[in-house]
């Protein structure tokens, strides 16, 4: 059987159950890498409300990947609010890629790379000059992906839990 990967822009509010289900899997994965990651059950309502708001108010784009008509991954980004408090050179709106995930059994097929490329191109066409994203320091696979895509580490976040 031929493998058909299709990437479709979706409204998170309309595809709530699918996106929330994938976000849940993302949070399980992140919790395995960092035990301070909140459980999805505790944050689902507020986090989903946040991403829906960012999609509606900040030119957000959510792409959903289907493999043979099965939703297997997603990526979501939105434009950061502009203000004058930045310390970097400012060249206009910036893309913040806040979430992305491909189900484990569908990894190593280029799906995340396809999602990322399509999301970036969408915003490059809108004129953005900077893309910002975070990943956990011990998420080696994502760090290798980001390195291969031309991202650079520019800041490190240090935490002290009391």
Structure description:
- This protein has helices spanning 16-33, 40-57, 111-124, 140-148, and strands at residues 5-10, 61-67, 70-79, 95-102, 131-133.
- It is an alpha+beta fold.
- The chain has one domain (5-148): Aminopeptidase, CATH 3.40.630.
- A 5-stranded mixed sheet has the order 1-2-3-4-5, sandwiched between helices.
- The protein is globular, with a radius of gyration of 16 Å.
- The protein starts with a strand and ends in a 14-residue tail after the last helix.
List the helices and strands and how they pair.
Elements: E1 5-10, H1 16-33, H2 40-57, E2 61-67, E3 70-79, E4 95-102, H3 111-124, E5 131-133, H4 140-148
Helix pairs in contact: 1-2
List keywords for this structure.
162 residues; alpha+beta; Aminopeptidase
User: What percent of residues adopt helix (DSSP H or I)?
Assistant: 25-40%
Strands side by side in the biggest sheet: 1-2-3-4-5
Distance between the termini: 54 Å
Q: Output the CATH class name.
A: Alpha Beta
Could you say what the CATH architecture is? Answer: 3-Layer(aba) Sandwich
Low-confidence stretches: none
Topology order in helix (H) and strand (E) letters: EHHEEEHEH
| Overall morphology | globular
For the record, the count of structural domains works out to 1
In oligomeric terms, what are we looking at? single chain
Mean pLDDT over the full residue set: 90
Rg, alpha carbons: 16 Å
Percentage beta strand: 15-25%
Number of strands: 5
Sheet with the most strands? 5 strands, mixed
* SSE-based structural type: alpha+beta
Q: What would you give as the CATH superfamily?
A: Gcn5-related N-acetyltransferase (GNAT)
| SS element count, helices | 4
CATH topology: Aminopeptidase
């Amino acid at each position: 059987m031929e493998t058909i990967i299709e990437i479709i822009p979706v409204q998170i509010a309309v595809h709530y159950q699918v996106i929330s289900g994938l976000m849940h899997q993302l949070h399980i994965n992140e919790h395995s890498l960092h035990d301070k990651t909140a459980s999805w059950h505790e944050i689902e309502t507020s986090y989903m409300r946040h991403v829906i708001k960012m999609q509606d108010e900040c030119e957000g784009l959510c792409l959903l990947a289907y493999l043979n008509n099965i939703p297997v991954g997603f990526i979501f980004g939105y434009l950061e609010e502009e203000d004058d408090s930045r310390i970097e050179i400012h060249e206009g709106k910036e893309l913040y890629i806040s979430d992305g995930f491909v189900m484990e059994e569908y990894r190593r097929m280029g799906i995340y790379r396809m999602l990322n490329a399509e999301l970036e191109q969408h915003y490059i066409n809108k004129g953005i000059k900077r893309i910002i994203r975070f990943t956990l320091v011990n998420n080696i696979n994502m760090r290798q992906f980001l390195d291969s895509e031309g991202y650079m580490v520019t800041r490190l976040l240090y935490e002290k839990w009391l």
